Amino acid sequence: MITNGYLLNNKLCETLKKLNINNIQITLDGEPKVHNARRKLRNGNQDTFNVILENLKIAKKENLNVNIRINIDTNNFISSERLLKILQDNDLNNFNIDLGYIENFNDLNCSNIIKKKDFFNYRLNFNNKLLKYGFKNSNLYPKQNILFCGAYSEQSFVINWNGDIYKCWSDIGNKKSSIGNININNLKILENKKYDLNYIFQSECSSCNILPICSGGCPHLYLKENDRNCSIYKFKLKEILQEQILKSEKEVKNGSYNNGK
Ligand code: SF4
């Protein structure tokens, strides 16, 4: 489950565990002042950072597996290191941490978006910071990624603050794309899958040599911009593998090699 973590108190953690939901992704956008400027409540500026930080401690106590995502652009990348220090100081460095790529889904004037081809360098730089603050760094080795996102799956839903249900997180707030509301009794979901895998296999992706790694990219963006926004692995596979080999060699030497996991 992906959540902003704001309401993740003891009771909810227990409920999630009863429901067998053990893996959660929570996003923090940097140190408190950077995070709070981006992640406001509807009623104004509040310290959402510290509420989420306290909730992360509860999640840790409840043994939930938490993946912390830091969505970055050129403005908050520098803050990601300060965030790692705060998490370390709060004894939260057993969680997985990864960078997320901010995309412009809504044609807003976002001049701070990182170019996709540069994002990998940010990840490499971030990996070194993870080690510095005692976190596990992420493996650069490509993984098979069967579905790009939940919009391909029958069992994945995005819930808006008012209970409206969507298939694609880029549609949030666009009422016409909503497929129901969780507050309605006897809810019948109108549409189970937004995209079909044939959509990938009938495109240029079918002959791409990294297809199972990328799975066709974001269908929403493709339909909007007619651009596949191809994976970095398509262009830099060799360099990435070389980088991974160097990283593994270092880990073997310092005894932290984890056999590619
Ligand atoms: S890298 Fe591009 S062409 Fe290859 S599978 Fe991904 S989106 Fe399709």
TrEMBL record:
UniProt entry keywords in alphabetical sequence: 4Fe-4S, Iron, Iron-sulfur, Metal-binding
InterPro entries per the UniProt record, alphabetical: 4Fe4S-binding_SPASM_dom, Aldolase_TIM, rSAM_sf
Cofactors that this protein relies on: [4Fe-4S] cluster
Transmembrane region(s): none
Keyword Thylakoid in record: no
GO molecular function list: 4 iron, 4 sulfur cluster binding
Presence of the UniProt keyword NAD in the record: no
Name of the protein described by the UniProt record: 4Fe4S-binding SPASM domain-containing protein
Native source organism of the sequence: Cetobacterium somerae ATCC BAA-474
